[in-house]
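We now fix the convention by which a protein and its fold are recorded. The integers have meaning only within a learned vocabulary of local backbone shapes. The record below shows the convention in full.
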Amino acid sequence: MTSLKRAQQRRKKQLMTFRIAQIIVLILVCGAIWLGIKHVTQPNEKATKTITVSAPALIMRQAPNSSKAVATVKSGAKIGYLSKKNGWDKVTYAGKIGWLPSWLINSDYNATTATNRLAEQTIVIDPGHGGVDSGALATNGTYEKKYTLKMGLALQQQLKASHARVIMTRSSDTSVALAARPKLANKQGASLFISFHFDSSPEANTATGFTTYYYHKASKTFAKTLSKSLNTLTLDNRGTAYGNFQVIRDSTMPAVLLEMGYINDYTDYSYISSSAYQQQVARLVYKGLANYTAN
């Protein structure tokens, strides 16, 4: 064999070795990229602890809200806890991953017999004004802030039976900035936001009735549902209306502002200051919430 042929064979072997090395490197690089993508798109879902469900039955949802059902979890079931968001626990159960309302896990709630999803909602109740912000004045000098709080607390009490997660922007006569109210609702991942207020006319005893305000188009159906549920009140229902109020403008969930009567009208004030009226409003708003969440 001539030296030229030997040199050609050596070059062929070197070229083949180089190409094999290139292929190996390419495979390694592609593998690293695939593993990286998998790590980003499919994070490690290893449970950190086990939780035993004591509620009769819960629906595991696709997202941390009242979304598509993934599975039904019965009492005594052991689930793997992964993380928490907006008051919901991300869990593993029966080979599936989903979300459960953490406040229902140890409750007596039975999702299989429920007619609506009110129990799965986080509802923020906002009693308007408070503290240094007195709100409007009644003809006898009483502050609006007193009755918005009474009405908010009445609704909170009504909602206890529903198993819903209820958050108050204030539970006493304290000052809360306007911006802080929707900010709280947004941070807590609230499903619904209700702000209580009372109207006041430029001249006393010249206006009467209650109005349901909304800002975002997405809140219009919610406003109409609540307004309809309040129809049986003695005071005139002035219907729903667009209202550019910060507490509902800055809220990212369906939100309404309820002006439940004119505080400087003698007739309206006699209702506003009545415990019976406050409880009636709370019951009717509760009914509206149940109707809205039924769908």
User: Anything to note?
Assistant: The longest strand covers residues 78-85.
